[in-house]
Automatic annotation (TrEMBL):
SUPFAM superfamilies: Sigma2 domain of RNA polymerase sigma factors (SSF88946)
Organism from which the protein derives: Virgisporangium ochraceum
Lineage of the organism: Bacteria, Bacillati, Actinomycetota, Actinomycetes, Micromonosporales
Stored InterPro entries: RNA_pol_sigma70_r2, RNA_pol_sigma_r2
Pfam annotation, one family: Sigma70_r2
Protein name as catalogued: RNA polymerase sigma-70 region 2 domain-containing protein
Length: 200
């Protein structure tokens, strides 16, 4: 696998392969389980490689559509996002920083484009395709690999493909630990419906 993807992505893909195997445990042929698992691995890696390329192209397209200025401030945006969100916590921390920024600030087209360009550079970013957020709006879903400590979870961002606005963030809990919940389950989500300046 490491011949086809980077080391960071390889660990996440192995975890995803075994998650698929666990979800489909009743489909595993007893005689050829190893061969079946290799087939699952091949499909997961192929989807990752296709998704990574699509994610980058889609984000660049949306970023190009949302900005009218040549200067997009992407480098400054990348630095700003790490102020309260240490990069050592993994790629999912960037998405948490983006969600915090959108919650706290009104972003114009140039800043949204810069945010999308930072998102495009998240290592191992997975494009999950078109989706509908919890408010019924169409968007494009992106998910980073999650190597942060604690219970296994997946963070998803949904972006408007026309305006580049962040529509929704969601965290799916994949393991329950000591919690009395059935997994997988959504344990946090935010819907961003309005972003405007208020009169003082």
């Amino acid at each position: 696998m490491r011949r086809r993807v980077d080391d960071d992505s390889a660990a996440d893909l192995v975890a995803e392969i075994f998650a698929v195997a666990w979800r489909r445990i009743h489909d595993v042929p007893r005689a050829d389980a190893r061969l079946w698992l290799f087939g699952v691995g091949r499909n997961v890696v192929a989807n990752h490689l296709r998704g990574s390329g699509r994610a980058y192209r889609l984000i660049e397209k949306v970023a190009a559509n949302t900005v009218t200025q040549a200067d997009d401030h992407a480098a400054a945006m990348a630095v700003y996002l790490t102020e309260n969100h240490p990069p050592g916590n993994g790629p999912a921390e960037i998405l948490a920083a983006m969600a915090d920024l959108v919650r706290d600030r009104v972003l114009g087209p140039a800043r949204r484009a810069a945010l999308l360009r930072v998102l495009a550079e998240v290592p191992g970013l997975i494009y999950r395709g078109g989706t509908t957020d919890r408010a019924g709006r169409r968007g494009e879903a992106f998910m980073p690999p999650n190597r942060h400590g604690g219970l296994a979870s997946e963070r998803t961002l949904i972006v408007d493909p026309v305006t580049g606005r962040l529509l929704d963030t969601e965290i799916l809990l994949l393991e329950k630990g000591r919690l009395d919940v059935r997994t997988p389950c959504v344990y946090q989500y935010e819907i961003h419906t309005v972003s405007e300046f208020a009169d003082p």
